[in-house]
């Protein structure tokens, strides 16, 4: 079974956006692959944002019936409802990674659906949230395995940073000296 891939709103929008033909083609290829492999996942939050964007923000926008057909088709991805588990996980994510609330909800939904990859242009490509790796669909070839991303380890500095050392407040130094 292929790894599950969570799709953020912007990927679906680009698949319908004639103003960006190159991104439209790439997003379309990604969605076709995920449909074919039955490995696409999303959330009710994403579907709600998608409907709003397709009908009110996209220029030229879609008519309500056409946008609704897209949403109904994506409901086949069995997107879970926003429930207590998603809210709790989003709260933990927001605190730990200092993400916006809405991005935290996306990450939480991807984690709870056991996705390896989160396709999004809104979060930094390569960012990891537990088992979920964010990948930009426009930086990753459709033929690549989405989760195959190797981050170079950060090499620890051997030398102290330049500049003057920080001075501690006098009260702190005085109490340190008095301790036996």
Structure explained in plain terms:
This protein is 47% helix and 8% strand. It is α/β, with parallel strands linked by helices. Strands 2-1-3-5-4 form a five-stranded mixed sheet. It has a single domain, classed as Rossmann fold (3-Layer(aba) Sandwich), CATH 3.40.50.1010. The longest helix has 17 residues. Strand 4 and strand 5 form a beta hairpin. Helix 1 crosses helix 2 and helix 1 packs parallel to helix 3.
Descriptors:
single chain, 180 residues, alpha/beta, Rossmann fold, five-stranded mixed β-sheet, 7 helices, 5 strands, 8% strand, globular
CATH architecture: 3-Layer(aba) Sandwich
Task: Please state the oligomeric state of the protein chains shown.
Answer: single chain
Helix content: 40-55%
Question: CATH superfamily assignment?
Answer: 5'-nuclease
Radius of gyration: 22 Å
Give the strand order, joined by hyphens, for the main sheet.
2-1-3-5-4
- As for the number of domains, it is 1
* Mean pLDDT score: 86
So what's the CATH class? Alpha Beta
Shape: globular
Largest sheet: 5 strands, mixed
What is the CATH fold-level name? Rossmann fold
Structural category is: alpha/beta
Topology as H/E string?
EHHEHHHHEEEH
Q: First CA to last CA: what distance?
A: 63 Å
């Amino acid at each position: 079974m292929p790894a599950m891939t969570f799709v953020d709103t912007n990927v679906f929008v680009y698949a319908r956006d004639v103003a960006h033909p190159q991104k439209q083609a790439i997003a379309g290829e990604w969605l076709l692959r995920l449909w074919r492999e039955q490995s696409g996942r999303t959330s009710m939050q994403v579907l709600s944002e998608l409907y709003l964007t397709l009908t009110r923000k996209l220029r030229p926008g879609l008519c309500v019936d056409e946008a609704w057909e897209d949403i109904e088709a994506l409901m086949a991805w069995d997107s879970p409802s926003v429930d207590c588990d998603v809210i709790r996980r989003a709260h933990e994510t927001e605190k730990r990674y200092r993400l916006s609330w809405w991005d935290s909800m996306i990450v939480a939904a991807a984690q709870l659906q056991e996705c390896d990859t989160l396709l999004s242009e809104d979060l930094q490509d390569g960012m990891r949230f537990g088992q979920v790796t964010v990948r930009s669909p426009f930086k990753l070839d459709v033929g690549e395995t989405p989760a195959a991303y190797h981050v170079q380890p950060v090499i620890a500095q051997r030398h102290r940073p330049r500049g003057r050392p920080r001075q501690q407040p006098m009260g702190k130094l005085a109490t340190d000296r008095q301790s036996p």
